[in-house]
Specification:
Elements (H helix, E strand, L loop, with lengths): L1 E5 L7 H10 L4 E7 L2 E10 L1 H13 L3 H14 L4 H10 L6 H14 L3 H17 L3 H13 L4 H17 L2 E12 L10 E2 L7 E2 L9 E16 L3 E16 L12 E13 L4 E16 L6 E18 L4 E14 L6 E14 L5 E13 L6 E11 L8 E13 L3 E2 L2 E2 L4 E13 L8 E14 L6 E12 L2
Antiparallel strand pairs: 1-3, 2-3, 4-7, 4-21, 5-6, 7-8, 8-9, 9-10, 10-11, 11-12, 12-13, 13-14, 14-15, 15-16, 16-19, 17-18, 19-20, 20-21
Amino acid sequence: MMHLWLRHGQALSEPVVTFIARKLTGLVLAVCVTGSAISAQTSIDLSLQEARDLARQALFAGDSALALDLARAVLSQEPDDRAAWILVAAAAPQQGDTATGRRAGARAFALSQSDEHRYEAARLTALAAAEEERFILATYWLRRALIVAPNDAERAQTRADGSVIRRLNPWSFDLSASLVPSSNVNGGAAGGVAAAPGTPTGSLSDDAQALAGWRGALGLGATYRLQESPTSRILIGTQYQGARIRITEAVNVPDEALATDKITFNLRHDRALGIGSIGAQLSYAMVDYRDLDNVTLQTEVQKFDVWQFDIDRRLPLGDRSDISVMAGRSWTSYDQALISDVVRTTFGAAYGYGLQNRDQINASISYADAAGGNANYTSTEWTAQISYTRADPIGPVSLSISGGASKADFPDYSIGPFTVAGGRQDTTLFYGATIGFPAVSYAGFTPVLNITGSNTDSNVTRFTRDSLSAGITIQSEF
C-alpha cells in the first residue's frame, strides 16, 4: 500500500471526487497544530493500481497537477512503471514542464512492449518536443510513431501533424539518394560519326558517344527561415548535389571522368501583395566536373561558378487556377579560358489548374538567351512543358506524368577551325513519370520510381542523342 497526502485547500473535480468515493476504503484525517498556524492534510491508503487509476481519472478530468503528483508517487515505488511514465509525459507539459514530459515519453517508449504502447509514447514525446520548439526532435518522434501506427486513420493524422511541424520549424532539411540505370549516362551522341554542315566528317571519341551505365546521385539540403510574418518571408539555404557514374561498357573512359559535385547557396524573399505574391531569389553555385585527356586517359578537375538572380510573380485566377511569370539572369564563369564567361537571361510563364477531383494540371513556356565569350556558348532556346498530377493514388501508387519539347539555336557554332554552316540547331522531346508507393512508406519516407527519357535531333551529330533511365529515389512525406 502507499499513502497519498492531499494538500489542504486542493480542490478535486467532480469526476475525481466520485471516483475516490467509489474506490477508497479508508480515510484518516489528521490535524496538526504548530504555533498559531493550522494545516490540514488527508492521508489516503491506495494500492499502486488504484493510484494509477486515480491519476488517469484526474488527468482526464483536467487536474494535471494531481495526476502528476500521483504518477510521481507511483514511480517512487516502481521506477520502471510504464503507465506512470505515460501519465508524467501527458501531465507535465500541461504544468509547463515540457522537458520533463519529453523525457518521460521517451522513457515510456523504451519500456513499451507493444506497437500500440510505443505509438502512444512516441506521440506524447513528439508533442512535448514541439511545445519546447524542438521541432527537429518532434519530427524524429513523429517518424517513430508512424512506424508503429495502429491504423490508417492514425497514420494520416501523424502525417498531418508532421506537415504542421515542418511549417512551424524554421529549419527544413532535404535528403535524396538514387541509383539509376541509364542508356546514356554521359549525354553522348547516338552514333560514332562526327558530321555537321560545312565541316569535314570524322569520328567521335568514346566519351563523346552514348555510354550505358549506372548513375548514383546524392542530394542534401538545409534551409533556415530568417523572418516570417503574415505578409513576408525570408529564407536562406544551402544544397549539395553529387553524382558518380559506373560505366558498364568496355570503353577507355574512366568512371571518374563523369563525376560532378555542386554546392549552392541561396537567399529568397517572398511577399504577399493585394492580389497574389512576388518573390525574388539570389543564388551562388560552385560546380566541379572532370576534363578527360583522351590520350593519357587522365582526368583533371575543372570548375565554374554561377551567380543567379530570379524574380517571379504569382496571380490567382479564381479558386482553382493561377498564373506565374518569371524573369532571371545568371552569370557563369569558367576556369577554362577557352570557354570564358556566359551571361544567360530567361523569361517564363506557367499556368496551373486544379480539377474538381483535386488533380492538378500545369503548363509552362520559357525563353532563354545566352551570350558567351566563346561563340559556341551563345544561343537562344524555347521550351514548353505540361504535367498532370493525380491527387488520389491509383490502387497502391501515386502518379505524375510530364512531357515537353525544346528548340535551341547556336548561330555561330564551330567545330575546331570549321564553322558549321547555318549554325547548330537542336530539337528535343522529353518525357517523364513519377510513380510513388505510399503504401510501403517507412517512418514518413516513401520510395518513388522516376522514369525519364529524351530524344534530341541535331544537325551536328555530336548532339543527336537518345536517353532513357529509371530509378528509385526516397522522398520524405513531411
